[in-house]
Batch of 3 targets.
Target 1
Amino acid sequence: MKTITLTLAFIGLIFQSFSQDCVFYCPVKEGTKTETKHYNAKDKIQSTDKQTILSKKVTGKDVSVTVKSESYDDKEKLQFSKDLTFECKNGVFFFDMQNFIDPKTMEGFKDMQVKMTATNLEIPASPSAGNALPDGNIQINVSNQGITMMNMTIKIYNRKVEALEKLTTPAGTFDCMKITYDVETKMMFKIQSKGVEWIAKEVGVVRSENYDSKGKLIDYSVLSFIK
């Protein structure tokens, strides 16, 4: 299974003119484009994600944004394209956990019954170093004529703002909050991993790193372009 990261969840720009309370960690300005490159532990490029802001919707103080996300392999061949939804409600930024599911994984179940339940991830408007953040999870059940074909659970927990620090990537230098978290994936068996992300309020994720349960680097991603 493709390593689960949160990189698709937070790439983007802040947009506060809608509401004094709403701070976004995803793109909201229509036409904004971002690019994130993914590398393995040996610095070999594995894939590239490209996002484009399609639309935004304002309802009172609440804002939702639709983002077109495209994933390319290491040879720049398009693997899949899908629309992501980001929301800010009552001053809290939300990310739908269903966005973590690789569309290619679900293609094999298109003629079956798929049930998803989730507790979405959130980031408050003004996080500080030391803040604990709420967990997120998603449960997926796939059945065919009443027979269960697959049960999968993804849990993201122990989320914490470790520090506030600057980070430089090819896209620029950013003031970031460093967030750490644990990931537990259950399907045929359980997989434990750990993640670190550097997130800038006016940009989103500028770098992420994924580690196995023993602390060995698996892969990482870097924001390479934003315009």
Target 2
Amino acid sequence: MNSEHMFGKFSKNLSDNYETESIPENMRNKKPSELFTLWFAANLTVGDFAVGFIPVELGLNIYYAIFAILIGNVLGSILVGVMSLTGPKTGFPQMVISRYGFGKRFGIFISLLQWINTMGWLTVNLVLAGFALSLALHFSIYEIPILATGLIILLISYLGRNIISYFERTMSIVLGLIFTFIVIYSLIRPEKIVLYHGIYSGIGFGITLASTFSYIMSWAPYAADYSRYNKNSKSVFTYSFAGGIISSIWAEIAGLFVAIISINPNLNPALDLRNVLGYYGFIGLYALFLGGIAADAINLYSNSLSMKSMGVKLKRKVVSIIGISIAIVISIIAYNRFYLFYEDFLFILDYWITPWIGIMIASFFIDMHGKALPISKLPGFNVPGILAYFISLGVSVPFMDPGFLYEGIISKIYLGGVDISYYISFLLSIPLYIIIRKLIKNRNIIINAK
């Protein structure tokens, strides 16, 4: 088979033919196992790796740190798995599915939030991957590595869903081997890890738990974008859950070991990884570079679907070019300031996600019993979803502590800076939706009876 014929074969199956429409059931023929490699590769990244530095910076005991990493990833991966279930049941991208919980018109606002979210993560991964590449190639000019990285990401995303799947499958093997090497190399230098004791800190444990949870669950608004080509819902949950949790724990523990060995971690974990690996530092840098591309191929693809879900009439490929262009410009302008505040800014963006997940669970799985209605029959504004969303988000504000700009009064005074707002907004949004839905339904029954 020549390359032209092979490319044509891939092109015929691209989801661009159904950018915001439901994938016909006879075309939902992807193997659920591909979701494992997709989420596995997407989480073997510098972002996950950097999360492993947090407990060391807080001085947390290594056993408490690993325990927090395990719990946070279990909880977050469950939410990603649950959102993956909506793909096979509807065939729609994730932001189109949001209309079931919020209405067709308000769903545009939710799509905007996801567009900003994907743009943020696209940009930060682009900067970090570009930085790793510049270190590996000994470039003093960072603009060229960022531009080159952005063009690679654009090429993969531009070619569509099938090419992304093949790329992530390849990266799951390559990155899996490299991160295995990083962990093993760290363990053959056990003296520093053994000598590191840390403290048993409830505050440090809580912050580490919140960080690991918020990172992995931030993939939930992407989930159906990649599972909508599958039919078997049970397998979709299993593979999405397993792929994300295994690689996230793996990358974060690798980061934990490197941070411990580094003793005094830098602002950028790529520097520490290079220093710890010594002669083999270039291997670690290329792992961070490739991991950034693996994550950003997914970020850019979902970024384009989010913009399309807002009603933009341009083709997804054109929207992808716009998205990566914006990310490259932001990356070059803000490059030297990223490591001071940008990741904290991205975690602030994550605050919108957990109440959104709660509304989706309450509306789609509980109220609608997991059965998709025609989009045309949905109201412009789903009042129970909108009210429950903002109430639960508002109630969680005093529990927030993103690290700068704002300290929630409850988090600051009673929790020592631990941010539990994600859990509050999620747990509150589900019963709120159900209660408000019943109140409005009962009121309409009374009015109709009169």
Target 3
Amino acid sequence: MVKKLVTGLLAAILMVPLVPTTGLSWHGGPPPPHYRSHGHSRHHGGDAVLWGLGGLLLGSAIVATAMQPSPPPRQVVYVEPPPPPVTYAYRPPVSSGMCRWERYVLDGYGRTVFDRYGQPVKEYTSGPCDYPPAW
């Protein structure tokens, strides 16, 4: 709301030179001859500026409140990720109704890691046979 009010006020202030009015201009001498003939009275420059700025502030506030407010920020909800399956460097014993899953260990570039004897390193886990583990 405050950001919109300040933006509206700034836009209104920047528009003042483009729309000059008699109320915002400074009167530096006697009024022109036709000015008094129509029943106008002479205004002091300070009063006109105050009225102009007051109208500017009031109009900016009205425009800012008429604008639709921004939607409330989303609430971030952190969810505990499921625990990763337990991995073993050796073949774990498997109970009945469970399966043993194995995969090759990969480095950060997706290449297979080898042990010091040149054999690919595998890791194992056990779990239900219905679906593979989420490594």
